[in-house]
Amino acid sequence: MDPQIVTGELKTQAEQLGFALQGACAAVTPTGLHHFFQWLEQGYGGSMKYLYDRRDAYQSPSYVLEGTRSLLVLGMHYGGGEPRPVTAGQGKVARYAWGTLDYHDLIHKRLRQLKQFHQQILPEESCRGIIDTAPLLEKDFAQKAGIGWIGKNTMLINRGQGSYFFLAVLLTTAELAYDAPIEREHCGVCTACLDACPTDAFPSPFVLDARRCISYLTIEHRDLIDDELKSNMQDWAFGCDVCQEVCPYNHRGSLASEPDLQATVQHNRLDLSTLFEMDEQRFRLTFRKTPLWRTKRDGLLRNAAIVLGNQRSHQHLMLLKQTAENSDSAMVRDACKWAIEQIESE
């Protein structure tokens, strides 16, 4: 079957499944592989051990699907709605987690449907759909597929559609018709994202030190957080959007249309008191199907305590003291004691 026709049919099907962005490229060694290795060697990956353990697998898409010849890179917008104002006792949540469903579940379901279509039109070829869990430098391939460029904040940016979108990839052993790559970045002299970062997580443009990134600290990091960083985490209880919010290419906000990814009152802004009142079972029932489950209860309580400390929230002082005394988690106790000190020092 003609690669041009096959690619067109796959892209049309992907668009119907909710992927607003589509681009195809060859399965080659990622252009930025050496930068990724340098990044790991400098320790910028922090405690994300899985990146270091699978280091060699990032060298080729064939580690993800043997015999891969082509990649269809896809983008699905997230974060529909507007951020709600934060009041004392509330915590901010990153846009990608505003909805009612974990994006992995939603996108994997759509990728399975796309895979079924692939098998119908290419029964002799193999394919695999992935989203941010396989050892693949998706942003590199997205740039090669013409989806966008990697900006100074290390996010993938599309000139017309910003950066509020998830990346997914369909790997195939078939030959596709490849799109023209984005040859250069279009950030120009703008440094808004670098200047706005509350924790100075960018040692240089295009380089992120995850160990200082609020998203990493509130989600991936499963331990105590340095006091210096706590003070700069502001109101963020889960993730962070600062470097995207200030990006000129996101001036129109999110273009999300998926109902499950639209903002909900519960997740747009978290009620922190409610989090402290939840037992393990209630926490599971509330967050099990959402991205917020990734932090587990202790991680989210640690984050919530830091937010209350930054807000100097006197009305939550007793709640923090009770948690500091009764929690089995060292990182939760540490965050509560720090928050108590901030409030009492007022």
Percentage of residues in helical conformation: 25-40%
Shape: elongated
End-to-end CA span: 71 Å
- Count of distinct structural domains: 2
Strands across the major sheet, in which order?
A: 1-2-7-4
Strand content: 5-15%
* Element-level helix/strand string: HEHHEEHEHEEEHHHEHHEHHHHH
Rounded average pLDDT: 95
Which residues sit in consecutive blocks of at least 5 with pLDDT less than 50?
A: none
Strand tally is: 9
Q: Rg from C-alpha positions? A: 21 Å
Assign the structural class, choosing from mainly alpha, mainly beta, alpha/beta, alpha+beta, or little secondary structure: alpha+beta
Largest sheet: 4 strands, antiparallel
Task: Give the SSE map.
Layout: H1 3-16, E1 21-26, H2 33-41, H3 49-53, E2 70-77, E3 90-93, H4 103-121, E4 127-130, H5 138-144, E5 149-150, E6 156-157, E7 165-172, H6 192-196, H7 214-220, H8 227-230, E8 236-238, H9 242-245, H10 265-268, E9 269-271, H11 272-277, H12 280-287, H13 296-310, H14 317-326, H15 330-344
